[in-house]
Please model this.
Amino acid sequence: MLSFRLRVLILLTFFTLSVGASATILDVDVSDLQGASISDAVVELIPEHSMSASAINNHEMKQQNRIFQPFVLAVQQGDKVNFPNFDRTRHHVYSFSAAKPFELKLYVGKAEEPIEFEQPGIVAIGCNIHDYMQAFIYVAQSPLYGVSDNKGRVSFNDLTPGKYNVNVWHPWQKTSVAVAPMVLTGEPQKTLELQLDIEHQDKPTSPPAGFAATRQSTQIELANAQ
Model:
């Protein structure tokens, strides 16, 4: 009888530890102060526990129909981004942001080399020929990040129990948002609701082809005249 009770105790203890150490699925819902879902918001989880280094990934921000796609791209520090131009119109991609200043002069098709983003931060992307073309790259220091979909949701799978700092960012936010702490205790699923005070705007859209071509031709002529 003593042996049986000891075995039951060991099994119960192991089961408790297993439940406490199980991974968590985290759903993050991002909305404005009125409760409307917000797309294109970046959520980054920064764990206090150490994580193994992740591989360097290649991403793509394409130029198509005379706009950048996607409007907001999230990458990890050290990742590389290609900027292919699928338009017949030449684009001149650049950034003056402190996190990554760069310039890809007028080209069609694939740029010669992808751009590496070595420092975390926000990188605003523009086109020197088409002022309406704007986009953003969020460079995360953690491998745990995502961009909210049309329902304002970002999902994370297989999160280890422990303490995390939650960072959220949107290009239209009125003020910077303080990093919020979060603790996962091993629950199988958890939902986190985040609210942002943003100024709603229209995302860049493709203008009529004639307008874009005329504008580009005029700007090139002005540049050549200087």
Helices lie at 2-20, 209-225. The CA atoms of residues 84 and 110 lie 5 Å apart. The radius of gyration is 23 Å.
